[in-house]
Amino acid sequence: MLYDNILFALGNVFAVHNLIYIMIGTMIGMFFGSMPGLTVTLSVALLLPFTFGLDPASGILMLTGTYCAGTYAGSITAILINTPGTPSAVATCWDGYPLTRQGRSYEALSVALNSSVLGGIISAFSLLFFAPQIAKMALQFGPAEKFALTFFGLTVIARVSGKSLSKGMVSALFGLLIATVGMDPVSGIPRFAFGRYFLYGGIGMIEIFIGLFAIAEIFRQIEERTQAIKAGKDMIKRKIFSWMNIVPFYKTIIKSSIIGIIIGVVPGTGGSIASFIAYDEAKRASKEPELYGKGSLEAVSASESANNGVTAATLIPALTLGIPGNTVAAVFLGALMIHGMTPGPQLFVEQGGLMYTLMIGFIVANLIMYLLGLFAINWFDKVISAPPSILLPTILVMCLVGAYTLSNSIYSCYIALFAGVVGYLMQKYGYPTAPMVIAIILEPMVEQALRQSLILSDGSPMIFLTRPISLAFILLSIIVSFLPPILKYVKAKK
Amino acid sequence: MSQRWNYKNIISALVTLIIAFVIYISIPAQVKLPKFAYEVAGSFNARTVPYFLTITIIILSIIDFFLSIRMNLVKNITKTDVEQQEENKIKSHNYIGVLIAFVSILLWIIFTIYFGFRLATIFLVITVMLVIGHCKWWQMVLLSFILSIPMDYFLKAVLRVYLPEGIFFE
């Protein structure tokens, strides 16, 4: 039965018209992912109505291409213009953009592409072979476990704080405070809304990222009379990049992809937290940790393989249990239902052929993304060669339009501008923006999980210590936070 | 070589302290708890996290403030005139340009509502290009045109994103 399904799926995926649909989906995903403000969810949602007229296999394959490519393409703008196209590409910014400023954008783009493809393929294999087992693991994650996992994600802050830990902490705490704006996740009470309805829904992450990264960078380049871009233009290093160049990062890529898979199956987490944890782990295990944050190819490979490792994994609870792991998985779930499939344990029995089409489609979509990416990065790389007087206004307009598009509201542009000023001043006064970004992404998850756990335990914090997974993550957080400084101290004493 | 205090860290610590304090005292007004919230959620309610965060920022800012003063008192850390001159030589800061860029973005946001996306974008692009410099007049005309009218059409036709048209194009 299994082999029948796999053969049926292979026939489906390699049909010429389906390959063309995957290619179209991949190109659309690349476009949306690389535009600040246009999200992967939006691209899948916009494409969904066009799949109604197609047969289920073609429609699902096209959406798969969009999803994979959209997740990868967030790294393009992150590397080239310091603006993450998707929240999960934030960690790629930290090292991708410094590499661009060193004239190594082509290498960074190539590593991002290769790592994304590998991460995506590893994730697709996990979906293909371990979906039922992994789905069982997802069921073990209640609010306490989710809190411990997201809390573990917050420990990354210590490693991305740069020279001053206290400034990193202040930056993270302000990030947490910004994320509290809007409705309280449990009681629904508005917090810091200042009577403005547009703040009731909270401050959008992407608007903040557009401001903190792109607008702040534009201000900085204007202040420095755009010397940095000119310097980058003069020393752009082009070299032929092949699979061989990625060999030193294989260990990091595999480890990060597995982190992506594990985090991807937990509903409500997603690519951002996976890339932060993978980045942190890669830095811990790296032979050159001092390069992290200053332009490390290994760091780019860690964050990109992790966020693409999430792609297929998020579909595991969606397909097997009917629980979408993130918003894209929710849209996917909707697409499956529209095409007559009911998610749940019976899906693999009743629609086995289509399910395996989806799984093999993920692998093929990643391979097509690789081929298209190889062609595209040559063009993307040329973007930074444009004179600053043309590049900066173009980025600025696209960012402002992107911010507007997110909520169809001009208030989003005010938020982006405000975040831009904050980001610029933070740079001037030596406050790292990375901890703030991590905090903004993780706060809603941390607070909601914490409060749900405390409600479940009647206010007793022992819930976090009596559940094995939660306890393991809390112990891991303590070890990761305190062990390196203790070891350093002991070493210095010797 | 005279010793000069490095005020950057002191100012930043003070500013974060003031901001955190203002947020702290605004919590009761900004997070209004209905009576039932005290009863249902007990000690953990909508205000708990903001209070915890602001208090921690205040404590860290105070520590940072005193550490910065202590650092300045340590002889080697203060900047000498020579070091300051070196730093000034490396970068000639264009703060006026940053201010103009900020004001032009702010005006873009305001103008977009009243005069529409196209006119506001033409204004923004030309202003930013003038601030950056090193560009020809035809580049300004061409780029401001491409980023306004064709982009508006593209957003409408492909993405179904309708940007404000303003009073002249309605």
Report on this structure.
The complex is a heterodimer of chains A (494) and B (170). Chain A is mainly α. Chain A has one domain (2-493). Chain A contains 24 helices and two strands. In chain A, strand 1 and strand 2 (190-191) form a beta hairpin. In chain A, helix 5 runs antiparallel to helix 15 and helix 6 (105-139) packs antiparallel against helix 19 (352-382). Mean pLDDT of chain A is 83; it is low at 228-232. With 170 residues, chain B is mainly α. Chain B folds into two domains: 3-90; 95-169, no CATH class. Chain B has seven helices and two strands. In chain B, helix 1 (8-30) runs antiparallel to helix 3 (48-73) and helix 5 packs across helix 6. Classes of the chains: A mainly alpha (494), B mainly alpha (170).
Short note summarizing the structure:
The complex is a heterodimer of chains A (494) and B (170). Chain A is mainly α.
